User: Fold this.
Amino acid sequence: MKRFPAVLAVALLALPAHAEPVAFGLFGDTPYNHWEREHLPDLIAEMDGENLAFVVHDGDIKSGSGVCSDEALQSVLAVFKKSATPLVYVPGDNEWTDCHRKSNGGYDPLERLGKLREWFFPDDLALGQRPLKLQRQSKDPAFAKYRENVRWEAGGALFVGLNAPGSDNNFEGTQRSGGPVAEFIERGAANKAWLAQAFALARSRKLAGIMIVIQGNPGFHAANVGNAGSGYRDFLTQLREETLGFAGHVVLVHGDTHHHRIDQPLEDPVTKETVKNFTRVETIGSPFFGWVRGTADATDPQVFRFSPRFWKTRQQAN
Assistant:
């Protein structure tokens, strides 16, 4: 690990000419109730006032017990489209994998995922009023349906979105048979290819950092003792191996468990030491309300920095 500062210094000498520092916003696991839906436009307006390059919602645009109706999904989509700042959305379990629940309306999860792809990812631009061009995995004929897997470059870093939601990454689907369903296997192959390509691109571009955004909490602490959930085991193995072989800094952003934290939970499996060039950021989730301001600056040895912006909700005030 001690070699990273020297390698990073060399990489900085060859940074792309457009690698000016950028600020961005991160939020997710909202809106879950009427109050949060009512104030979602205000939250986005606050981020719009911060001169951010883009904002990312890391999934769960409704509660786990809310109905997965067209109206519920399109209501939030309408707010996202009004964002003055480019908005990138990563799907969460509440809007597709868990929609088979009776309380959710008993929808087919794959049908709901198809609607998300149709409505939220119609072209190669982020949502919002200001255009941000995205590279979508669907450009590759081998992964044509994975429009939600995206990447873009800013601030001397690569940003990557992956569809890896909660409920153990849809490992068993609705079957609960103990084994992986076809959807999980196919999407896992797509995610593996997209993540490998992202790290290869970041290395070839000599980028200072890479940020990966998913919805599900992959369970780092369980993985460190060999008990990673089946749905995230391969992802965590690949993430660790790619990070150990990358000279810059790596950040994983996720939601799902509604516990805001910024820490370094990734361990080297051989030495059991903390992987120093890796940081996890879990966004603020309901019943808490707010967002995380981030910066990417290739001239900063840390590359990425974060600060939470909590709102005081009606629930917290009581």
